[in-house]
Structures are given as structure tokens and as C-alpha cells.
Design brief:
By secondary structure, the chain is α+β, with helices and mostly antiparallel strands. It has 2 domains: 2-180, Jelly Rolls (Sandwich), CATH 2.60.120; 183-296, Homeodomain-like (Arc Repressor Mutant, subunit A), CATH 1.10.10.60. It is built from 9 helices and 13 strands. It has helices at 131-143, 165-180, 184-200, 208-215, 219-230, 234-252, 257-263, 269-280, 284-295, and strands at residues 2-7, 12-21, 36-43, 45-50, 53-58, 61-65, 71-73, 81-89, 94-97, 119-124, 126-128, 145-150, 157-158. The strands form 3 sheets. The protein has a 7-stranded mixed β-sheet, with helices on one face. A hairpin with a 6-residue loop joins β12 (145-150) and β13. The chain is elongated. The mean pLDDT is 90. GO terms for molecular function: DNA-binding transcription factor activity; sequence-specific DNA binding.
Length: 296
Amino acid sequence: MYIIFTCPPLPHLIVGGKSLYRVGDLHLRRIMPSTFDLIFVTAGKLYLEENSQKYILKKGEFLILPPNRLHKGYKCCDEATDFFWLHFYTTGKFKYMDKPIYDKNHKQKANYQFTKEPFHISLPQHGSLTAEQQSQMAEYMNTIVQVKIDKTKPKKDFYSSTVSQLKSQQLFFSILSILCDIHEPNTKNVAEKIYEHFSLFYTESFDLKKLSDEYAFHPTHIIRCVKNKYGLSPLQLLLHIRIQKAKELLTYTNFSINKVAISVGFDDNAYFTKQFKRIVGTTPTNYRKQQQINKI
């Protein structure tokens, strides 16, 4: 499930904290009016129930507890458990959906007064983070901690913020950005669609704006999805596909190097040779010779 915020206004951070639970500790039972509670587990396991749905949060997993709905621990911790949490709210509208909403960043019109259309922030209610995302999340959340709940101590510890209010909100939005980036099913679909497009139309010129218009995703989102899936930028992915096609032509045809370059979308033979050597590790000519030797 996704929690969809209509913006503006933007969600706003209230406070961040960290909790250390012992074996046998249980998360409290409560309803938080108008306040969202984001929990991110860094060690152990936390057993939570929200809206009759039970979750076992392990290291690297997160859960957003919406306002005005009962949540509680349904089982005591069976190992030492550490987790960050932060409370935030919005004065705007939000709703629950099965899929995220992606907004296209429309081109401004040639008017005297520029305008900005409303947009949406789509947060998965529950999910897991990669090792890199966990590290970023822990760093951001640790910076905005103002409350520490250590179950080995009788009282909570309260701290003054080490950063400004503005910086706290910036870190909060960085946290939301991490959560927005983990739309794994959609990330995979977008990246695979781009790969299939390049595989069919690899001779066409690279045009990120055209891809954005065709697939109705912002260019930044396309770049992020392809990078997460293949470890390459869209342009780099296209070049790798072109070079793979070139390797096939060099192996199975007698095309000249220049004709091979043109056949896979390169207008400049020198640029083709440079990219081929960068990706394959040798020149097209040497690659063809090696393939001929291997056939003997």
C-alpha cells in the first residue's frame, strides 16, 4: 500500500528519535491524531500491528504508521532491538492507494506569471532498504534525533537539535526521497521498458526527453530506475547495447568497421572505436581477429 500526499503543502517533520528495546519489551498501544510515525529498524526485530495487519520489522525494514488508526506491539521483542523513528504531519490531503502516482514535470507556458501544478509524494507504507539506503537513512535520522528511549533507563533522554530547523526539514525530505526511490516493481518495469526500447531502436539518436514523453516519467526518474536496475545511465545502457550488436556483426559478417559502426547507430567511426575499446577492452579490428582465431 502507498500513502499518497497531495502537495503543496508538503509534509512536515515534528521530531525524530531513537529507541533501544530489550528482550521482552513491547511497543506501546496507541492512536496518534494527525501524526504519522515512521519506524526504521537497525537491529533485531520489532513486532507491530496496524489496521489488523501484522508486521515483523527486521534490520533494514521500515513501516509508516498512519494517524488516527490504532497501532500496537503484538509480541514482545525476542532479541535486543534498535530502531529510529520520526513523527511528521501534513495539513494537506492524503489517501491510500495500491500503486504510486508519478507526476510529469510539465513544461512552463509562455505566460507572464509562471505557475506550478500540484504534485504527489507516494510513500510505500512498508518495505526494505538496500545496504546503501540503510546507511543513508541511519545517517539522516541520527542527525535529527532529539529523543532517546533506552529501555534500560527509567526516563527518556531529550536533546537540543544539532542542526537548524531548515536543515532538519531538508534531512526529512531526503528521508522521504529514499522511501520514494524503493518502488521496486515500478522501478523494474520502467528500466526493463527502456532496455527493450533501446534493444529495438538502438540505431536512433539518444533523446532523454523523448523517452520521458513516451513513457510518461520524469527524466530524473528514468535515470534513477535504469541506474538502480543496470548500474548504468540510460545513455551508457544504450552504448552497451550498441556495442553488443557491433560484436555480433564483427563476428558473423564481413562488414567493414565503418559499416558496423553505422549499422549500430554510430555516425563517427572514431567515436565508435573509442567506445568499443572502453567497453570491450580492445579495438573492433582486434576483436574481429580474435573471434576469427577462436573459430579455427
